[in-house]
Each structure stands twice: as structure tokens, then as C-alpha cells.
Amino acid sequence: MTSDPIRNSAPGTTGPTPRLVLNGDDVRRALARIAHEILEHNRGLNDLALVGVRTRGVTIAQRLQAEIRRIENESPPLGTIDITLYRDDLDHHLEHPELRSTDIPFDLTGRHVVLVDDVLFTGRTVRAAMDALVDFGRPRTIQLAVLIDRGHRELPIKADYVGKNIPTAPSEQVHVRLVEEDGADEVVVTA
Asked: What domains can you pick out in the chain, each with its CATH number?
């Protein structure tokens, strides 16, 4: 019998041990790389804006904004968007949806908007976010930045900037933990 701590249960516990995919340093490096890629692709900050999808997408967008400020000595405007009412499963899974604020304090029209989220899975969250965005203006482009792309798309959506691609089973869960909300930076996969 092999003793693989990623796949086997720890002694005295039931179920598989969570698999650490990114630690704090990995998260920091991935976000620094994404910030550089955004700047390269858009040739700087002209008409660039970041919009984070509630909840962890907002935190990641704030970090990308800070990293861009570190690189360029200025930063793009930052907005936040709540997609709850745009979800296509609203009537199936959410009896009492929790609405959070959307705050986009700038005109989206003509901008290169980088939509930021933590995990790209089926693509339905991104579709809902794009629907919500166009209610606030008509961006020139909408680009997508995610910390994790785990595959299993149900819609034809692809991220422009990815921190890490990880193979997962559809039944597995990806947990992005960030210092601001969870006390630590890490990405863990559980069965």
C-alpha cells in the first residue's frame, strides 16, 4: 500500500486529505504574473479597468490593482459586481439569495474591462458577470482573469489570464482561501 498523503486518509480520519495546490508564495507569484500579462496585453493602463466578482474575485482584483500600481506607479480603476440576480440557476438553488452591492464608480463604455474571479469552472458565473457588466455600459473588450481554471466548461468561455490550471474531477471542490477573508493564502482541492 502506498502512503500518498494527497490521496489517502490521514490516520484516525475518514475521507481523503485535502490536496494543497497553491501555497501563499504561489498565490503571490501567480497574481504578479497575471498583473504583468494584463499590462503587456493591453499595452499599459490606457482605458483599462478591473472588475471583481463578489466575493473572492474582488479581493483578487484589489491585489491585481495594487500589483499594477507597484509596476506602473498608477493603477486602473476598480469596480465590484454582484451576479446573484443574473444567475441562471437562481430559481433552482437559492430560496433566499443574498444580494451584495455592485459598485462600478466609472463609465465602462469604451474600456478594456478585466473581469476577475477566483475559480473558473463551468463558465456560468462568468456568463452572468458579463450580462451584469453590460447593464453598466458597453466595454470595448471584456477580458477574464482567474486564479484557478479547473476545467469542466459547460459554456464556451476561456480565461485570458490564469494563475494555474488544475485538473479536477467534477465531484471535487476547489477552495481558494485568501488572507483577507480566511486568514491564509492557499488553494486546496477536496473530494
From this structure: 19-88+106-190 (3.40.50.2020)
